[in-house]
Structure formats: structure tokens, C-alpha cells
Predict the 3D structure of the following.
Amino acid sequence: MADTMREVERKYVLPSPAEGDGPPPLPDLTGAGGVTAARAEGTTELDAVYHDTSDLRLAAGHITLRRREGGHDEGWHLKFPVAPGVRDELRAPLSAELPDDLARLLRSRTRGAAVAPVVRLRTSRAITRLLGRGGRPLVELAVDAVRAERLGGSLTVTAWTEIEAELAPDADPAVLDKVDKKLRKAGLAPAPSASKLARALAETGPPPPPAGSVAEPATAGDHLLAYLREQAEAIAALDPAVRRDLPDSVHRLRVATRRARSALRSYGKILDRRVTDPIGGELRWLGGRLGVDRDTEVLGAHLRARVDALPAALLLGPVEARLRRWTAGNGARSRDLTLATLDSDRYLALLGSLDALLADPPLRRAADAAPRAVLPKAVLKEYGKLARRVEHALALPPGEERDLALHSARKAAKRVRYAAEAARPGVGKPAKRFAKRVKRVQQLLGEHQDAVVARAALREIAIQAHAAGETAFTWGLLFAREDERALAAERELPRVWARASKHAARAALAG
């Protein structure tokens, strides 16, 4: 994998310099956020070629891919947005072709389309480093004289000068706020574009389509499609995060997948299920494949915490080593499955199907109705299914059949919650309140299912330990504690469920 750097910076605009003029002087920044000195480090010539698809899919997703020559970090740079003014930059050595590990991170955006040069930026960069006590770097100030050329077709050229203030690694972000204050006081204005590429595309045209260009939702169909667009964008955006193994990325991608599938299933009065059911089936496949990785991650962390909480006197045998072997073996297999899924043609076809659905949605008559006339009915219909499953489970005696019934109820609770979340923009606070009530039911059912899964894993580990001649005492002890955890959730369920009764649900959605 390429090296990763966290880039935190602010940009400011300057008028273009007159012919023959050098970089404009910088204001005195000593005293700003602990700056004690400013050290000029000369001028560097940079030549960067930015790559994208022919329809600028990367730029539309605020992703930057460039091949840059010159400077201390020449090579391939791939940048993903993290927050305003913050990006993760992945770097790979200079080469003629785009490295494979960077290309894979773009797969959910490019969908097999080729990336090619779209813009060339030649920059004359004058660098000044702001230092703190002991000469510690705090901020790098770069005065950039930029010449941008649009490539392909007719050549279009534009030029400007800007200043970048980039936080040094491990420096306090508050330094940038202090520097920003002084720069603004000196007459510099924040750049209107988030990046040089964005400005170059805007000034040489045509730019990528603006994000959020869809009209404000008005009808029930508008609100549902807006929700589905949000989930489709989340899937595409989280794909590279999962490939980079970022914390919680698999969970978030799985949730976006489930939300999209739930919306297609719950709102059949708005979108024709004869068209959407095949897509829902593929979303179920994707969620299931991702679930192996996510469930393994959660279960491993839970068992680790359970073992750590035991007194040393109860850790009989090579417990730590046995758990490490079990976790490592299951984790490696699940990670491989996730990456194979994201690399598959089936996954790309699913992304294409979602795009096609949003471009030409199979709307039914109810799509044109007011949100409050349609969305609450769909939520209450899902709630009715949940009620039947909970009541069936509670009528069963404790045991495997009840465990399965409660797991079924948990999945139904998720669908109700996601349906209420999808309705929230059109219905308002009533849907929010109802989603909150159902979330508590879902969490309790989830606690029960997690205990059931943990019991099965502990039994498996105990069998392995016994077969290896180790004592299974500790694993049996933990099994008993998970069993009690499951029973506690079952005892709590009637009280929690009563709060989300059908009467309360109707009242909540009615406002």
C-alpha cells in the first residue's frame, strides 16, 4: 500500500503577479500560535498532471489524482476528502503508469473507465517554513504562481497566484487558526476553490457536475430518491476506506448497503419492486459478504475484552495464545473475502444498477403524493411485521428456536428503524422520535444475538483447546457468562417492547 499523509491546510488567493515580479512579500507571522521564526527555503518548480475519467468522476467525488515531478515528494498522489481543509494523501513512487494499489482505490468511482490526463499545472513554489521553539516546524507557507492547462481537445490556459498554509506533521491545528487570522488581517482572502484542480477545471471548463445539484425534495418520491442517493454515494465513498482498512469502515459500508436495501423493500408503493427487487437481492449479497468481516471484527474485540476482564487466577491454560490463533485465522479469511467482493465484477454491476435506478427511477403513483400521506404508512407496515415477530418470539420457551425468532425480530427492527430514518426528512420530528424508540428495541435484540454468537464461538474454541490437550475451564466460564447475558436481554425485552407499542408508534408518527 502507498504511504499515507494527513494534509491539513488553508488556501488564500492573491492577484496574478505582473510580468517579471517575484512572489509577493508575506506578513510577519511571528507570535502567531507559537511561531518564533520564519525560514525561507527557496523556490521549487513543480509539474503536475492530473488524471480523471472523461466525465470527471473523480473530481465530482472531490478526489484528486496526480502525477507530479519536482519537489521532495514527486510521484503519484491520490487525495481523499476527510473534512473541510483536511485530506488524506496517499503517495506512490514516480512511474509511467498509475500504480495498481492506487487504481484499486478508485474502482468504485471509475467503474472500469480509463483515467487519463485532464489538467496540467506548472507551479513555481516559494516556500517559507514557520518554526516554533527549538526550530520545530509548525506550518509550511507556499506562495504558488500557477499556470493551468486543460488537456484533451482544445488547449485552454489560465493562471493565478495563491498561498497555501499547511500544518506540519504533529503540530497543533490551533496554529493554523492563529496564522489564518494574521493572513486575513494582511488582506488575504480564503480561496473560493478547495484545490488547484477545482479552480483549474472551473476556469478552463467544462467543470464536473456540482454535488447536490438535484432540486429540493418535495414529494414522497423526491424524499425517497434523495435518501437512496445518499446511500449510493456512501457506498462509493466508503469503498476505498474499506480497502485501506480504516477503523469502522466495513461497518459503515455495510450500514449504507442495508439502508439502501431496506428503503427499496419498505417503500414499494413509491418504487416498483418488480424493478427494484433484483437490486435489493444484490445489496443483500453485498451486505452478507461484508458481514463476515464486520462480525469477525466485533466478535474478536468482544472476546478479547472478556478475557482481559478475568482475574489471572481464572485464566487456566494458554488462553491468550489460543484466542490470538483463533482471531488471526478468522480475521485473515474474512478480510480476504471482503477484498475479493470489492474486486468482483458483480459488485461493479451492482453499483451500475444503483446509478441506473437513480437516473431513471420506476416511480409509482404514490411517488407524487405529499410525504406525510405516504411515508408514515410504510413505516407502520414494517412495524406491524416487527410486532408479530417479537410477540412470536416472546411466546416461545428459552432455547434455540427462541434464539432464532429473536434474531429474526432483530432484522425486522432494523428495517423499521431504517424506514423511519428515510421518512424523517419528509415527516420531521415524529419519525425521528419513533426511530429512536425502535433503535432501543433493535439494540436489545442485538445484545441478545451477540451473546448467542459469542456462545457459539466460545464453544468452538473450547473444543479446539480440548483437542489440543488444554483445559477448557476458562472457555466454559466465559460461555456461561454469555449465556446469562442472553437471558438478561430476554428478560428486559418485554419492558422495552412495551414502550414501542403500536399505539405509541402511531402517536409518534402522527406528531
